[in-house]
Structure formats: C-alpha cells, structure tokens
Amino acid sequence: MAGPPPLLLERLRRRVLSPLFDRLGYDLVPANPDWSHRPLSRREVDTLIAGAARSLAHDLAAAGITLPGTVADIVREFWERIPAAPVRQRRGGSGFNGALQVFVVMRALRPRAVIESGVFRGLTTWVIRQACPEAEIRCFDPDLSGLQYRDGAARYSSGDWSEADLSDLDPAATVAFFDDHVAQGRRVVEARARGIGRLLFDDDAAGHRIHAHGGPAHPTIAMIEAVRNAAPAPGGSEPIRWLRNGRAFEQAVDDALLREAGACIARSHAFDDLHRATGYSPARLTYVALDLEAASRQQEEVQRR
Q1: Record's superkingdom (predicted)?
Q2: Beta strands in 69-172 (DSSP E)
C-alpha cells in the first residue's frame, strides 16, 4: 500500500499549492488511490465486504452470470490483494469499486482470453491478471506512454482493437472490456462481427446522467436499451441533448448505429455503483451479452436481399 506523502510536502500542498490551485478553479489532491484509505477493525471490514458481496451477488444474478464459490470469498480475496496494486491513481481510471467489479466479473466469466480496449495506467490489466492468471490478455490503447503497470505476458498495441488480427483466439472463450471513450454502440457492432458475445463496458451512462461523465462515448448501452424498450413517439422522438464544459452534444434516437447495436444485444445489466456498501467512488460497469445467432440470421437475410 502506498504510504503517506512526506510531511513537508503535505504541508506545502495544504498551505501554499492548494490555495493557489483553488483560485485557478482546480483541486490539488494527493495521488494516493482511494483504497489507501480503509477500515482496519475486523467488524467494519467484515461489514464492508458483506455489503459489497450482497450487492454484487444481486447484480451477477441479474446479469445471468454464475460465480464459482461464494461472492463474499471473492470480495475478501480482492480486499487482500488490492493494497499491492502497482498503479497509483486518484483521478481517472478505476477506483476501488470499479476494480472490484472487474475482478469479480472476470473471475465469474473465467475467460481464456481478454480484450482490453483502453488501458490508461494499467490498473485494470493488473486486476484482470489477478482474477484470471492464465488468461491471454490483449491490450489496446492509442497512448501507452502513461503505463505504471505492464503485464509481462500481455500483448500491447497502440492500434484500435477492431483492426487487430485476433484469429488465434476462441471468440466463445473471450471477454472484451471497453473503457476507451469510443461509442459503445460501435463496440457492440464490432464485437458481434468477431463473434465475441460477452462484453464489459465502463462509463455506461443513461441519457439523463451523461452530462456528468467525461468523454461521453455515445450512444451508450443505457441509451441503446432505453430507445429499444421505449414505445414509438408520434412524429418522432426528440434527440438526447446535453451540455458539458460549455460544449453541446446530441444523440439522435433514430441513429442507424444505435438501432444496429440494439439488435445485437440479448441482455444487458448495469451494476450498482457500490458506493453505499463501500464508501468508495462510484463505479459504472455494465455487462452485455450479445445474441450472436440473431446477428447471424440478420446477416443471412441481408445477403439474400
């Protein structure tokens, strides 16, 4: 676990640097990850683990995922492993809750191969390796210069995953994890084309909440599902519009990509953010299972036409 900053540096941050950054409209915080702050007494640790386990058990069942063993045992294993994480990050990337969700879901899905699109500093690569020690991991990110953890057995590429040769992987035994700020509808269609039917998405945001997310990768899974399940509106539906940092965004609900992605999805479930159970920063993980047979029939129908 990362130790506290030197006393002199901490005093400098509080008394000089923080007030200066505050006047400029910024917050200056230590780079310690959120899990460096944790309960130590057994009763409180057990309460945190039990609460997280209950929430995750409910989400796994709703997603149609079966976990070998008890959820509480897996959460406790993560609790014991996470202090050794080699990545120090406070802003951006996954915190405790997001890393816990990835760990539990990967342990449950037991993939032989994992596609990770969006690597950032490498925390989730480390988490995936802890959950699936034998898995083949392929990491894709246009900028790998910020890595704090590089997996010795993984393959790294600065290209987009959709352009990579993955012919040596079994799609049925592969899970794709997207945390890359690229349209989630596009990633669904790309995965369907490669026969990969088990997907994880970070930063999935509903239309009424997307303004609070950085780099909105729309259409998001939540948007796709909302449109797919909505009754047709007379005269057409109003686009989803929002404002972030002074910039206006819009997502048409009759968008072709949104409709195509919706036709691929058999099941999706957005996990609880775990904040109530753990007190750590909320996570935004969504599991998506694709209907590959329906997609195949759709392609055959197009070809016949």
Answers
A1: Bacteria
A2: 113-117, 136-140, 155-157
Q: Where are the domains of the chain?
A: 28-304
Q: Do residues 74 and 131 touch, judged by C-beta distance below 8 A?
A: no
**Torsions phi, psi of 238, nearest 5?**
-70, 140
Of all residues in the chain, the percent with pLDDT exceeding 70 is: 85
pLDDT in tens, 197-216: 999 999 999 999 988 887 66
Angstrom distance (rounded) from CA 28 to CA 20: 9
Which helix (H) or strand (E) segment holds residue 235: the answer is none
Supply 114's token pair.
Answer: 């994992």
Whether omega for the bond prior to residue 219 falls within 30 degrees of 0, making it cis, is yes
- Longest Cα–Cα distance in the chain: 73
CA angle, residues 189, 132, 89, in degrees to nearest 5:
80
pTM: 0.87
What is the band of 11 on the pLDDT scale with cuts at 50, 70, 90? confident
Distance between CA 108 and CA 111 in Å, rounded?
Answer: 9
How does pLDDT run across 81-111, given as a tens digit for each residue?
A: 999 999 976 555 579 999 999 999 999 999 9
Reduce the secondary structure of 227-251 to three states and give it as a string: HHHCCCCCCCCCCEEEEECCEEEEE
Domain spanning 28-304: which CATH class is it, in words? alpha beta
pLDDT digits (tens, 9 = 90+) for 28-40: 566 678 898 999 9
